[in-house]
Amino acid sequence: MASSTQNPPHHLSTPHGATAAPPPTPSAQPNLSSNNATLPDALSHLLHRLPPTLSLSLSTRRRSSSTTTTATPPVINLSDPTPPLHSASTQLGYFHLTPHHPISPHLPPAAESAALSLFNLPHHRKKLLFPNTWPLGYDSLDNEDDDDDVSTAGESFCLDSSCSAESAIESDIDLGSLRELGSEMEKLGLKVMEELGSVVGFESPGKDDPTRLCSLLWVSDGMNKPGRVYPYVIGLHYQMRCQKYSLLSDSGWANVSGQADSVLVTLGDIAQVWSNGKLKKVRGIPMPISMDANDNNNSSCITMSLLITLPLESTVSPLIPGLDINAIEEYHEDGIDSITKTGKRSLFRSFSFEDYAWRVYHERLLFKDPLVRYRV
Q1: CA spacing 20 to 30 A to 374: which of 62, 302, 328, 359?
Q2: Higher pLDDT among residues 323 and 5, named by residue
């Protein structure tokens, strides 16, 4: 069975020391004379060498409402003997877990209150408490200065599993509820991943060795604001109230109806590669949308998402047993169909997770599928 984590894991549990340098430039420089080399490849390598503050980003403007559909995700209860995971994951790439998920009902309100306290901190203190050590730390899409009066729209905190801040000055910041919520969502996500693997036919690398996976708690504040894009296997997004969310799936933009006290599950790009293209995916994190221009309820803008993802040193490749990952051939008229049916050929090349994550995060390829270049 092909492995997605062939190298020793890179732990993200204690990242908040000195600010980390950008990831190292890949040893293999782009060869523009190669058949596989393209201008985007060369640009990606160039951007990888730049500090994050100098990286270019594409427009984050959403598509017009005329291209957005309204969707009602299926509701799945994992305690059912045969939950309809296959149709939801292979046709949509997202679904609701409700009403019998195991997350304690007292945790989400407490975690949301803790998140609000973070966003209410002065801007300079947010940066001091949570220095940017990619992908962890404090990030503001709209603000590049230390003005404490700037708008908070588009802010986010990416936290590790321990929700740690700079210990010297965190004594008055209580993140215990966020940490507990992240832990419970992580357990639920691993269970969903195991169920998906059994349905689609792959075995999660974290089943026997949890260090081959890692979790990030992404707390965002901003209505109608597309946030950063980071690769993940499964995303769990706790919904405190009945509110619509907008997400970008393989089928295009969709406004997804919300359900109070439910968990919206989205399948990410890594899950699609692991399944050899069988699973649909969602790019990035669903964002809350306001139907009322006068909605000033700060708590309604906050999203709390748990992303189960990979350590940076991982190599990503399909995990379907029996695939010949090294067999790359020129397809004929019905080649793709026959390979999909037999499952004997990999539809994706193996690639470095670190390089891929750096590219999609800093270039913010929201409208262009970043997996295209790795398809066979």
Answers
A1: 62
A2: 323
Choose among 233, 232, 204: nearest CA to 319. Answer: 204
- Could you tell me the sign of the dihedral formed by the alpha carbons of 165, 167, 169, 170, in that order? positive
How open is the CA angle 259-262-266, to the nearest 5 degrees? 100
Q: Is residue 51 part of a domain?
A: no
CATH number where 186 lies: 2.60.120.330
pLDDT tens for 193-238 read 988 988 888 888 877 787 899 999 999 886 656 567 899 999 999 8
Predicted TM-score (pTM) of this structure? 0.76
**What's the number of domains the chain is made of?**
1
Amino acid at position 235, single letter: G
Residue 158 lies in a domain: yes
Q: Which of 176, 178, 130 is nearest to 155 (CA)?
A: 130
Q: Domain span at residue 245?
A: 63-313+355-367
Q: Give strand pairing partners of 66.
A: none
- Of all residues in the chain, what percent carry a pLDDT higher than 90? 30
**DSSP E strands: which ranges in the chain?**
69-71, 75-76, 94-97, 137-140, 155-159, 214-221, 234-239, 245-249, 252-256, 262-267, 282-288, 302-309, 315-316, 351-352
- Partners of 155 in beta bridges: 140, 221
Tokens of 372: 């295209």
Alpha-carbon span 295 to 302, nearest angstrom: 13
- Residue 331 falls inside a structural domain: no
CA-based nearest residue to 233, from 192, 261, 263, 200: 192
**Is pLDDT of 242 > 80?**
no
Closest CA to 236 of 282, 298, 176: 282
339 in any annotated domain: no
